[in-house]
Structures are given as structure tokens and as C-alpha cells.
Design a protein that fits this description.
Strand content: 5-15%
Family: Belongs to the peptidase S54 family.
Number of strands: 6
Membrane topology: Multi-pass membrane protein
CATH topology of the largest domain: Rhomboid-like fold
Shape: rod-shaped
Order of helices and strands: HEEEHEHEEHHHHHHHHHHHHHHHHHHH
Structural class: alpha/beta
CATH architecture of the largest domain: Up-down Bundle
EC number: 3.4.21.105
Strand order of the largest sheet: 1-2-3-4-6-5
CATH superfamily of the largest domain: Rhomboid-like
Number of helices: 22
Helix content: 55-70%
Subcellular location: Membrane
Oligomer: single chain
Pfam families: Rhomboid (PF01694), TPR_19 (PF14559)
């Protein structure tokens, strides 16, 4: 007789599977199964148990055990609240009073469990309650007893389990739609570029980084648009390279397999561009690295979460959100991290994924709208960036120019100094460096012109007066030399070098 109700148990399981539920736990004896919805995260967990209990105390103990097990599972799944429908399928109910245990749901702070006991006398009444609860039509029948019933049961069980396996394989295939190719191309490229940087001045050398394409706002403003992309493969120091390579090695294949290689390439490059664009808008620093593109991979996973929310949270969702949160918080705490680039890459990756969408899935209208929105936002950001030259660049330009001058690369220094606007408060220092270059080139007349231009912009710039004094002394025009050094001393009277020069000029006079 119990085999007949085994059929009922497997029929109920099969109909939940057909209603977009999946098996999350099946006991070794296959007499207990947990099912969860693949469509609605807040839908209740179904616990289905095939059992025969003689006494109500067994029912009570099993319900308490189920509450504990479900609460542990809830914590592992990072679920705040959990609704559980607990269904016992049995031929006959316990012989004593069992109804009082199922009359009221078992409830804790986090778990709410409603229990049904289905037996031969109330089967259709319980089915009606379940249909009302789940808004679906569960239909079962109790087969007649026959010599072939055991064989038929085994056949049906195999059919149900095969159906569940196919559902699982279909779900898993979503994460295997492509092969990781471009991920390893970018890993190899950034490693090669790191050694090239190290060979040509060092990956932490600002001048070297700029020469090889790091994001440098003044040169972008001069029209070097490729600097939105080239920073993706450049890294500043070994630790920076190691961390980004490690992250790309583990994250890239997941995204590339999920979206396919061509979609991944578009997502990665657009996210890298978006990270550079955000850094261009909000950070004056020289920057490089694949961080924006890697955060774009996180953005693509967030878009996957939007398209398949339940699958996302059942698989990778909490891990992705946790890692994003940790990295953004770390970026806020550590001032040297370009958090603008990270956030820009995250948004760019989400938008790029919304444009290409997932393979074998159609959302044409959504994709066109996403493309239009992305184009408009990108155009606005570029317009703002190019119309509003960012501040705090002059000091960096002067520092780089001094590096070029120290290495006697005067042409590069001159080109760098042209990036400083004449109205900038630091423009007088640019004139001073130009004068220094002319002195090294023995063009003293031009040097004096630049020094006068410097003191015209800043009449408290005593170094310019000192160099004017040196130039006039070199021309044996001691009277003007004396006037210039006296002017320097009036501004900075404690400088011993200035005093010594004045003494020497007076001796010559």
C-alpha cells in the first residue's frame, strides 16, 4: 500500500519541478526533498517528505529538526527571511492527536514554516490548500495496486530525476556559452607591457607611464584620445600588476564564458574606456591599470543579475556584491586608489552588457534603449571633460618637465610646458624653466626674455631675479646685475647665495 503513496510523493515533486522549481537537497534514501523556485527569490522553500509516522511526537521532532536545518541553510544562502512549506506524504496519519502541531505555523525570527500532513483521507483537501497557496494546479492520483507497480514507480522516479538533471544542465549551460580567449590575451598583454615599462625607465616612473599611454589629462585635452584605452594594459609597480592579473584570471573567464568572447571584448574595452573617462572627469592624477575594465566585469555580472535575478543570487550573487563592496570601500579608504575609475568601469561594464545582452536571449528594444542612453551619457561626459579643463595639472607638468630637463631632453620639456595655460597661477614657473633651457643652450637673450616674463607674472619670484643677475654678470653688465640681485635680496633677504653674488658684483664694480 505504501508504494501507492510513493507515487503521490513523486508526482508532487514532478509537478513542482514543472512549475519552475528545482531540487536543492535530496536525501540519500530519496524520501526527503527540498525545492526552491527558479523564478521568484521570495517564493517559499518546499520541503516534501515521504514518511509513515505512528505517533505525533515523531512528527513534532521532525518538524523541529527541519526548522534547525532550514535555518542553517538560510544563513549559508545569506537569506534574511525564509518561508517554508513543509509537506508530509503518508498513507495514514499518526494514531494520536497530531493536528495541534500543524494547526499553527512554526515561527522563529527568521524562518516561518507552515506544515501540511497529506494522507489517504485528506489528500484532495490538502491539494486544494496547496493550490491556493502556490497559485497553481497540483493534480495527483493514487494508482491501483498491481504486480508491476514497483517497476512503474522506478521508471517514474527515473523520469523525474532525469527531468531535474536536465533543468540543472540547462541552467549550468548559461555559464558555459563561450570560451575564455580574450581574458588570457589581456593578461599576456599587460605582463608584456609591464616588462617594457620596466626596461624603459620603470613602471613607477611617471614620465615613462605618460610616454607609453597612461591617462594624463593635459594630453587628452590636446587631442590624444587613445589615452582613454591604453591605460588598460599599463600597471604601476609589480603589486598593482599582480593584483589586477590575479583578479582578471579568476573573474575574466567567468564573464567571457557567460557572454561569449566578442561580447566580452566589447564589455572589457568599453568598461576600461569608461573608467578612464570617469578618472579624466574627477581625478587630475596620472593613472593606469586594468582596474576599470575589471570592475566592468563586475558590472556585467550585475547586469546578469538583473536579467536572471534568482539564478544570480543562488549562484554568484552574494560573492559578487561582497567583493564589489569591499573594493569600493578599500578605494575610499586608500587615497592613492582611483575610485572614480573603479566606479566608472563598473557602470560602463553594466551599460556595455545591457547593449550586447546575453547570448541566445533577445531583448532588442532594451538593447537599443541602452545603446542610446549610453551614447548620450558618454557624449555629455566627453563634452564636459573637454570644455572644463581640470585643475591642479600645472604642478605635475612642471615636475615632468624638470625630469626631461635633468635628462637633457629639452624638446620634450618644451612640449610639456606648452600644456600650461598662460593664465594659470603657475605659468611663471613655466617661463622660468624655459629660461633655464635657453641658458643651457647658450641663448642668453631669449633666457632673459623668459625671466622677465616670469617676474611680470609674479614680481615676488626671487629666483628669476637671481638668474637675471647671473646673466647680466656674464655679459659684464654689472650695474644691471647688481639691481637684479638686490631685488632678489629684498624679496628673500636671508639667502646666503644671493648675498655672495652681490658681494662679488660690488667687488667688480
Amino acid at each position: 500500500m505504501s508504494i501507492r503513496f510513493d507515487f503521490v510523493y513523486w508526482q508532487i515533486m514532478f509537478q513542482f519541478l514543472q512549475a519552475n522549481y528545482e531540487i536543492v537537497y535530496l536525501s540519500p534514501d530519496e524520501r526527503e526533498v527540498w525545492l526552491q523556485s527558479t523564478r521568484e527569490r521570495k517564493a517559499p522553500i518546499v520541503r516534501l517528505v515521504r514518511t509513515d509516522m505512528d505517533w505525533s511526537v515523531s512528527l513534532k521532532n521532525d518538524m523541529q529538526r527541519a526548522m534547525t536545518a532550514v535555518d542553517e541553510w538560510r544563513r549559508r544562502q545569506f537569506r534574511r527571511q525564509l518561508q517554508v512549506v513543509n509537506i508530509y506524504v503518508m498513507m495514514d496519519p499518526p494514531v494520536d492527536d497530531w493536528e495541534l502541531y500543524v494547526h499553527r505555523p512554526l515561527t522563529t525570527e527568521r524562518v516561518h514554516m507552515k506544515t501540511f500532513v497529506m494522507h489517504i483521507n485528506n489528500m484532495y483537501a490538502v491539494l486544494h490548500e496547496l493550490n491556493m497557496l502556490f497559485h497553481q494546479s497540483l493534480k495527483v492520483y493514487v494508482p491501483d495496486d498491481s504486480p508491476m507497480l514497483q517497476h512503474e514507480l522506478q521508471t517514474f522516479k527515473q523520469h523525474v530525476l532525469s527531468f531535474a538533471e536536465r533543468m540543472y544542465e540547462n541552467e549550468r549551460s548559461i555559464f558555459e556559452r563561450g570560451k575564455a580567449r580574450w581574458t588570457y590575451v589581456f593578461i599576456a598583454l599587460q605582463i608584456v607591457m609591464f616588462f617594457i615599462l620596466e626596461w624603459n625607465g620603470g613602471s613607477t616612473n611617471t614620465r615613462t607611464l605618460i610616454e607609453y599611454g597612461a591617462k594624463f589629462n593635459p594630453l587628452i585635452l590636446q587631442g590624444e584620445w587613445w589615452r582613454f584605452f591604453t591605460p588598460i594594459v599599463l600597471h604601476i609597480g609589480f603589486v598593482h600588476l599582480f593584483m589586477n592579473t590575479f583578479a582578471l584570471y579568476y573573474l575574466g573567464p567567468l564573464v567571457e564564458k557567460l557572454y561569449g568572447s566578442l561580447r566580452f571584448l566589447f564589455i572589457y574595452l568599453f568598461a576600461g574606456f569608461s573608467g578612464s573617462l570617469a578618472s579624466f572627469l574627477f581625478s587630475p592624477s596620472v593613472s593606469a591599470g586594468a582596474s576599470g575594465a575589471i570592475f566592468g566585469c563586475f558590472g556585467a555580472l550585475l547586469y546578469f543579475g538583473k536579467a536572471h535575478p534568482h539564478l544570480f543570487f543562488r549562484t554568484i550573487g552574494m560573492n559578487v556584491l561582497t567583493v564589489i563592496g569591499i573594493n569600493l570601500a578599500f578605494g575610499l579608504v586608500v587615497p592613492t586608489i582611483d575610485n572614480a575609475g573603479h566606479i566608472g568601469g563598473l557602470i560602463g561594464g553594466f551599460l556595455a552588457a545591457s547593449i550586447v545582452h546575453l547570448p541566445k536571449e533577445r531583448a532588442r528594444l532594451g538593447q537599443w534603449l541602452a545603446a542610446l542612453f549610453t551614447a548620450v551619457v558618454t557624449a555629455i561626459c566627453l563634452y564636459i571633460g573637454f570644455q572644463r579643463p581640470l585643475a591642479d595639472q600645472a604642478q605635475l607638468i612642471l615636475s615632468l618637465s624638470k625630469q626631461y630637463i635633468d635628462e637633457r631632453e629639452y624638446g620634450e620639456a618644451e612640449q610639456m610646458l606648452t600644456l600650461i595655460n598662460e593664465q594659470d597661477t603657475q605659468a611663471y614657473k613655466a617661463d622660468f624653466l624655459r629660461a633655464y633651457i635657453r641658458i643651457q643652450q647658450k641663448d642668453y637673450d631669449a633666457a632673459k626674455q623668459y625671466l622677465y616674463a616670469a617676474v611680470e607674472k609674479n614680481d615676488r619670484f626671487h629666483e628669476a631675479f637671481y638668474y637675471l643677475a647671473l646673466l647680466y654678470a656674464e655679459e659684464k653688465n654689472y650695474e644691471k646685475a647688481k639691481q637684479a640681485v638686490e631685488r632678489a635680496l629684498r624679496i628673500y633677504p636671508d639667502d646666503e647665495q644671493y648675498k655672495q653674488l652681490l658681494f662679488e658684483i660690488e667687488q667688480l664694480l
